[in-house]
Amino acid sequence: MKILGWAGAAALAVTLGATAQAENIKIGVVAPFSGANADLGQQIDKAFDLYVKLHAKDIAPHTVQIIKRDEGPPTGANAKTVATELITNDKVQILAGFAFSPSAIALAPVVTQAKIPMVIANAGTAWITNLSPYIARLSFSMWHHGYPMGAYAFDKIGCKSAALAYTDFPPGKDSTEAFKTGFEKVGGKVTESIPLGSPVQVPDFTPFFQRIKDSKPDCMYVFIPSGAHATGVTKAYGELGMRKAGIKLIGPMDLIPDNKLQDMGDAAIGTIVMGNYAVDLENAENKAFNEAWHKEYGKDSYPDFMSAASWDTMHAIFDTIKKVNGDLSDGGKFIDAMKGWTGKGPRGTVSIDASTRDIVQDEHAMEVIRKADGKLGIKVLGTTKAVKDECKELKIGRCGS
Amino acid sequence: MPQFAIIAVSILFDGLAYAMFLFITSVGLSVTMGLMGFVNLAHGAFAMAGGYIVVSLTRNLGIGFAPSLAIAAVVVGAVSVVFERGLYRRLYKATDLEQVLLTIGLAFMAIATATYLYGPIPKSVPLPNWLQGDISLGFRAFPTYRAFLIVLGVALISVLWYGFEKTNIGAKIRAAVDNRRMAESVGINVDLLFTLTFALGSALAALGGGLAIQLFGLSPSFAVLYLVLFLIVVAVGGLGSLKGTLLAALVIGVIDTAGKYLYAEAGGFFIYAITVIVLLIKPAGFYGRE
What we know:
- The structure holds 2 protein chains of 2 kinds.
- By secondary structure, chain A is of the alpha/beta class.
- Chain A contains 13 helices and 14 strands.
- In chain A, strand 6 (161-166), helix 6 and strand 7 (189-195) form a beta-alpha-beta unit.
- In chain A, helix 8 packs parallel to helix 9 (258-264).
- Chain B has a two-stranded antiparallel sheet.
- Helices cover 73% and strands 2% of the residues of chain B.
- Chain B has a domain at 21-220.
- By secondary structure, chain B is mainly alpha-helical.
- The A-B interface holds A 34-36, 38-39, 41-42, 168, 192, 194-198, 200-204, 206-208, 210-211, 214, 227-228, 231-232, 235, 239-241, 259-260, 263-265 and B 7, 10-11, 14, 18, 115, 119-124, 126, 133-134, 141, 143, 145-146, 214-217, 219-221, 225-226, 256-258, 260-262, 264-265, 267-268.
């Protein structure tokens, strides 16, 4: 009788496992909700919320519970504290978000130890995915934009020489290094490389740009975190009349975040960036995404590349939850299941590279124009299909380890 | 003109424009600290409030940039009196720590309020045509907006200097900064004087906040982020000294700009280097009382 009872219980457990017990999966979202970069947190958070709202039924009978925490300033310390709390106190099974590279870098050892999948929706320093086998990235590496921009600027924009300027933290160095590698490979000449201070506050850009204006390069490649800095760069560039002086403003798409573009005015027109997303990108998914966004958040609210990547981040997480049938008991298995994921989103078709756990996506050269309706927008000048992170492909520096 | 002279003029111009912004925004903080020994960390919040008023007036009501600056200064100056009479006054005799707690609390409340009303996305203002573009002096073109900062700064300094040095009320303020008890015992109403200077300082901060939008963009965290800059100017200049604040703003503005231009690699370092050096030599700042 007793033996039979045990057998029955075991059989019951097997059946339950097979018919998919409804799991409630806790996802910890870490994004900046305070400080100078609080708007980045909103761009990420709104996309997450929108995806969960529209697609919660996709993973039935499983459900997700989102727990949000403030990433704080781009230094990593606060993110590490709140994410550790999410893991130990709230028992989250997946971490998602992360606007800033220092946060992701600080957390890598934590998620490795806790065996918790960490899905990055923005932080772009190339070698972040090398730091832990539990990290997957849906956004981009700085090399996705910077490296192809090197050859494009030389061949198509007419930059024979370029000055580099970057906000002094890991993705800034990474982005300029990527551009420099691609640019010098085709024969471009880098005149100088200027750090623009910390990402915490917007500096007075004028003296830096005045210096560059006086040294007369063909182009100025600028990386700044896409928050308040972007408007400051455009203003200083416009005020100094640098375009008139023949110095073109180029960079990764962080220079012209969609939600700040309208505020930048005429000074932004003619800026050419390399990037994976813009509101004006033409594909069916992006159109639907923008419509859903405006319906939810109003006509004056715009998604941007962070929102697009965050949308795909949730998409990949949801697809993988379906694939593992809600079983989050083994974080490693979850990440394995995510490898090779392919999906269609606002950026077109994107996939996760199985060996590097980093995103593979199309890259577009885009120019800021004044559209027929009087608003600022972008025109796609050229597209490269299925771009991988070249830093890891070429095994440069820390990307090789 | 030789190249180095052009560069020197350019650095002086940009540095001067930056210095004027620093002076306008910081002078109120210096005077309130000198006069009452009151540590007002909400000073940046008044500047931020001024900035947002300018944004609302120009964007939503279509009022010009210059009149908006004036309105913002008057409104914030008036509202600051309510804060001074209602809250600050209660803590004049309290310890520094209590004052810091109150004012930093106010700053955080201001940030939350601004985020609620305007959202965290940085705002900019439409500039009138006469402030856009640049002015060419033959050998070099200078941004018009920066020239405007310099003109406005010089005008304000003249007015403040006249008011401080040549008028009866200016003499009373100087007397109160020098020796409050003595000033009170000869019948000067220091309380009223303080309310007036506090309002003036807050109005100037609001003006500075409005002017800063074009330089840094305006987001709610402005209230705290740039406070460090204002405190540096006040510390280097010496508490309560108009002259000191002006000298500190000039030194910091010009050296910071020169450092960024000439030694861009070490750009952000100079402002702290100046601060450390000045305070090592003169711990109370240029014109502070030891």
